[in-house]
């Protein structure tokens, strides 16, 4: 009988805020939410003052001012040993219309319930 | 708002695109990483089960002999999360769902054919199912199983699956889970109130009362400025 175990493992992506991402998070799988502020040269999403560059296939699906969620892995910007972190995305979700403030509070509540940082 | 579900699901559409699905009584809401099991125990609150059965205490795994207090066994679950993988296989459709606390592999078997129209539509998508599902926030109901080829990892056999297009559906889900977790923890605490009946019926019926409407009324009441939201005071009450 087939079952689900014969595929490569996909890591669970912790829900994090862009402002919470730090240099020590390289390699971690995360899910971030933000508004797309730039699609011209680089795809950049922002949550308040915090911004994150996203490397994604099919980034043409996203337009400026779209509220989006990306799931992916954090990596160093290519060519720079101590460069800033970028998100290598593997899934995109359009969340236009989300109440971001309530979403953040729900995330905080869940973290408190689970006793976790993320 | 939300409608209470009917007992029969035979005529209910599986794909919900406009509103979060109705509450499914008898199905325990699970954030994927929390390992809880709920079923009517055969004898007493902790049940006897078979030699291979496991009773999972809130938050951790324990064998039946080591269990103390009142543990709940769950065989059916209702989970919500983002689809991170959707892959048609020879005899089933594999959907991996990530809710931020863990990943669960869910299988939609071709045979017997699913009852819900939406689930059948997903099977008929074939190779295009990945574009249809990847990145979508879905609600899944199904029976839990163990994959003993993969260290007993939990998986689900999908009975119903629905795409939730409302961007705030996940927020509501997280709040509902906090509510459900509080109810379960209270019901199973060793020093808490004893269950109303020895065979666990009281615990099951108590959890069935945690409806979407109740969660919405308690958790999403208006704030001082009349906007919907969860105030700090409300959060303290919930937790």
TrEMBL record, chain A:
It holds the Pfam family Ten1_2. GO terms for molecular function: single-stranded DNA binding; telomerase inhibitor activity; telomeric DNA binding. It comes from Vitrella brassicaformis (strain CCMP3155). Coiled coil: none annotated. This is Replication factor A protein 3. One of its GO terms (cellular component) is CST complex. It comes from the Eukaryota. GO terms for biological process: negative regulation of telomere maintenance via telomerase.
From TrEMBL, chain B:
GO terms for molecular function: nucleic acid binding. It comes from the Eukaryota. Signal peptide: none annotated. Residues 79-163 form the OB domain. Residues 214-239 are annotated as: Disordered. SUPFAM superfamilies: Nucleic acid-binding proteins. This is OB domain-containing protein. It comes from Vitrella brassicaformis (strain CCMP3155).
């Amino acid at each position: 009988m087939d079952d689900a175990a014969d595929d490569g493992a996909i890591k669970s992506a912790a829900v994090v805020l862009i402002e919470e991402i730090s240099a020590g998070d390289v390699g971690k799988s995360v899910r971030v939410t933000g508004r797309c502020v730039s699609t011209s040269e680089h795809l950049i999403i922002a949550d308040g003052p915090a911004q994150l560059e996203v490397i994604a296939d099919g980034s043409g699906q996203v337009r400026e001012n779209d509220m989006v969620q990306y799931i992916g892995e954090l990596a160093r910007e290519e060519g720079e040993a101590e460069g800033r972190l970028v998100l290598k995305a593997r899934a995109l979700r359009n969340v236009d219309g989300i109440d971001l403030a309530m979403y953040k509070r729900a995330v905080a509540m869940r973290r408190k319930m689970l006793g976790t940082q993320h | 708002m939300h409608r209470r579900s009917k007992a029969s699901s035979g005529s209910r559409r599986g794909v919900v695109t406009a509103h979060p699905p109705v509450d499914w009584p008898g199905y325990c809401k699970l954030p994927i990483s929390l390992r809880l099991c709920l079923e009517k125990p055969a004898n007493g609150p902790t049940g006897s089960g078979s030699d291979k059965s496991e009773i999972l205490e809130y938050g951790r795994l324990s064998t039946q002999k080591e269990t103390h207090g009142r543990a709940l066994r769950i065989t059916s679950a209702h989970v919500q999360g983002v689809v991170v993988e959707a892959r048609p296989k020879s005899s089933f459709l594999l959907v991996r769902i990530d809710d931020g606390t863990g990943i669960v592999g869910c299988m939609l078997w071709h045979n017997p054919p699913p009852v819900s129209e939406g689930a059948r539509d997903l099977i008929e998508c074939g190779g295009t199912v990945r574009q249809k599902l990847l990145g979508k926030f879905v609600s899944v109901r199904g029976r839990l199983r163990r994959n003993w080829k993969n260290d007993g990892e939990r998986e689900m056999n999908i009975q119903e699956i629905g795409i939730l297009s409302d961007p705030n559906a996940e927020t509501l889900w997280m709040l509902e889970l906090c509510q459900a977790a509080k109810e379960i923890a209270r019901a199973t605490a060793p020093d808490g109130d004893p269950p109303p009946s020895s065979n666990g019926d009281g615990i099951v019926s108590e959890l069935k009362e945690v409806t979407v409407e109740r969660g919405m009324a308690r958790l999403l009441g208006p704030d001082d400025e009349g906007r919907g939201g969860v105030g700090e005071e409300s959060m303290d009450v919930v937790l």
